[in-house]
Design brief:
76% helix, 334 residues, 14 helices, mainly alpha
């Protein structure tokens, strides 16, 4: 089903969604346990006086809102690319174990090499995402039938379980390390700085831009590899570019916010529902919708057990699980 069919209507909808995202970011900056107002937000950026409210606005809530937007966009775009590449409606960085692999490499680097710098964390995440993606692809290609969606899903689930177990095993023998990363492992954007965001932003932005330019070629690939080759497309090079974008997007998101699940599954399906299967539109719409969802989920996470906060990864799981079950039972066209 496709609700918006005309190109001009899709452009209008995309602009409207960008305004919704801006409104969500503004709401994230204003609302929380410490009450603030629009006037205080304005004063924090025009006449900063060092008050507690203004410090919270500039140093806590603004970075948190921007991190949530970038991470949500990255995970949703990565999920859309994975579903197109594998022709599997349940594909996502979480289901295929890429998030778990990236998280394991970050914890292992911190555990064995004592790495702490943001740049080192990002590269550890990229390495873990690449390693896991390669293993899942190789395992899913074994056998006479070659690469199939069901074998990819099973291989990804196995890798996710293995890396999650290894991560928990390392943390169980190091209580200090456990205290430092436990909240991160549940998926959270709380306490993230602009410096950490700026470390991963170039990689995520470049991958998102490249993936949007690949939209027309992805449309041909989804129609079938034989069709794409018959039209002169270099499918091997395209798949490599898509895989690279997936690693950069998922690795960046995990490095800054931990393994947040379900956004990469549900958002691409919703994007295709409203604008169709054209990946020239699916990818940008997925990015914007993913950003909106994660920012909104982070706002909601502040109020459930106030004054304590629920990790945003728990919120996305609560939202995404029913949708995941529906997609798994119904199936979906890519």
């Amino acid at each position: 089903m496709m609700i918006f069919k005309k190109a001009y209507s899709k452009w209008i909808l995309l602009l409207c969604l960008l305004f919704v995202l801006l409104a969500a970011v503004c709401a994230s900056v204003i609302y929380g346990y410490t009450g603030t107002s629009w006037g205080q937000v304005y004063q924090a950026f025009t006449s900063f006086n060092g008050s507690n409210e203004q410090v919270i606005i500039k140093d806590v809530r603004l970075p948190r809102a921007l991190v949530a937007a970038v991470v949500g966009a990255s995970l949703a775009a990565a999920g859309a690319l994975m579903q197109a590449l594998t022709k599997n409606p349940l594909a996502s960085p979480g289901i295929f174990g890429i998030n778990a692999g990236a998280g394991f490499f970050i914890v292992a680097g911190s555990f064995f090499l004592h790495i702490q710098s943001p740049q080192a964390l990002v590269w550890s995440s990229f390495l873990g995402a690449s390693f896991t993606a390669a293993i899942v692809y190789a395992a899913g290609s074994l056998g006479r039938e070659g690469l199939t969606p069901i074998k990819l899903t099973l291989a990804g689930a196995a890798m996710a379980a293995m890396f999650s177990s290894l991560t928990q095993g390392m943390l169980s023998v190091n209580e200090l390390e456990l205290a430092q990363v436990l909240f991160w492992l549940t998926g959270s954007v709380q306490g993230r700085s602009l410096d950490l965001l700026m470390t991963m932003l170039p990689y995520a932005a470049a991958a998102l831009l490249i993936s949007c330019f690949l939209g027309r070629k992805i449309n041909l690939l989804v129609m079938g590899e034989d069709v794409a080759k018959g039209l002169g497309q270099k499918t091997g090079l395209l798949k490599f570019a898509m895989a690279l974008c997936i690693v950069l997007l998922a690795g960046s998101a995990v490095a800054i916010a931990g393994p947040i699940s379900f956004i990469g599954i549900i958002i691409p399906h919703f994007a295709r529902f409203i604008i169709g299967n054209d990946y020239r539109w699916v990818l940008p719409f997925s990015a914007v919708l993913g950003a909106i969802l994660l920012v909104a989920a982070d706002i909601g996470a502040r109020y459930i057990i106030m004054p304590q906060e629920v990790p945003v990864g728990v919120m996305t799981a609560i939202i995404g699980m029913p949708v995941f079950v529906y997609i798994a039972r119904r199936g979906a066209n890519l």
